[in-house]
Amino acid sequence: MASYKKSDARAWAREHLTGCSAVTIPSYSADLKRLNERGIRHDIELAMEFGFRYTLLCSEVAMTPEENAQFTAWARDTAGDRLGLFFHAAFGTLAENIEAVKLAEEAGADIVLLSYPPQFWPTTEQEIYAYTKTFCDATHLAVMLFPIPLWGFERVHPAGMQVDLVRRLLDDCPNIVAIKSEQGFPLPAGICEMYHHFRDEVVISCPIEGDAIPLMSLMKLQFSGTSNTAWMSSYYPKAFELARNGQWEEAMAMYWKVNPARSANGAAAQTYAGGTGVLNRTMWKYQDWLAGFNGGPLRAPAMRVPDRIMKTLRQGLVASGLPVTSDLDSAFMAGRFTC
C-alpha cells in the first residue's frame, strides 16, 4: 500500500518524486512460461547501484495482471524503501488496467505511469478525459500523466493533450501528481508548455535525457523519467543531480562525453519508432544487458534487434567511455541468470 493518502498525493510527489527513473523490463524463464525471479531481483539491485531513485516496472511485454503483481512484489522485497516503483498502466483495456493497478497497489507500487491502449481510439477530448478520470478515480495511487504522440491523440488536437484538457484533468483528478511531458516529440514544445502552465501545481518531468540536462540551465526540474537511460550505467543520475544542485557546467561536461552513446541510441530508435508507434523493448533490454543487467528472452510478439544495431549501440558505449560487457552478443538472449 502507498505511504501517503490519495488526498495528499501531490504534496507527497513534490517531496519524494526526485531524481531519475530507470525502466525495468521483466525477465522470463527460458521457456517463457514464468517470470525469472533471480533476473528481476538482479536488475532491481543494479538500478539502485547506478543511483536511480525510481524504476518503471514495464508491463507491455505480454504479461498478466497477476504476473505483474508478482513482478512488483519481488521488486518491492528486493528494494525495500530504497527505490520507488512505477506501475505501468499499459494493459489492453481500461478494465484490465484497473484490475492490474489494484493488484499492484497491494504488491507495493508507489505511483502510476498512465498509458493508453492501442485499441483506445478517441475522436473527442471528452473520451480522453473520461478514460483518464475513470482510471484515476479507481486507484489510490498517485498518477503521472503522459502526453506523447504515441497515443495518436493528434487527431483530436495538434498537441495531443492540449493545455485546456490537462487543466480539466488536474482540477478533477487530485491524484495526478506529475506530467511526463512529451507533446510534439521530438520537439521540446510539450515540456516547455507544461512547465510554463503547471510547474507550481505538479511535478513536470522531462524524460528525454538529451533535452533535460540542457533545459536545466533554464528550468528547475526535480525528476526525470521514466526513460531508457540505465544502459548508460550511473551517468544520468549523477549528471541530473549535478544540474539540480547548481553544477550545470559539470553536468554538461558529462553530457558531451556520452554523446556517442546518445547518438547511437537515437539512430537505433529511428529504425522503428517513427513508423510503428511501438517501443522496441527487446532493444531496450539488450541495451541494459550491455550495462550488466540480466537480458534474456521476451514473450512474443517481440521486436527483433538486428546485429548491425547491436554493434552500433555497443560501440556507442565504448566511444563514450561507459561500462560495457565483454560478453558476446550471442549471450544476450540466454540472459545472465537463466531459469
UniProtKB/TrEMBL annotation:
<protein>
    <submittedName>
        <fullName>Dihydrodipicolinate synthase family protein</fullName>
    </submittedName>
</protein>
<comment type="similarity">
    <text>Belongs to the DapA family.</text>
</comment>
<dbReference type="GO" id="GO:0008840">
    <property type="term" value="F:4-hydroxy-tetrahydrodipicolinate synthase activity"/>
</dbReference>
<dbReference type="Pfam" id="PF00701">
    <property type="entry name" value="DHDPS"/>
</dbReference>
<dbReference type="InterPro" id="IPR013785">
    <property type="entry name" value="Aldolase_TIM"/>
</dbReference>
<dbReference type="InterPro" id="IPR002220">
    <property type="entry name" value="DapA-like"/>
</dbReference>
<keyword id="KW-0456">Lyase</keyword>
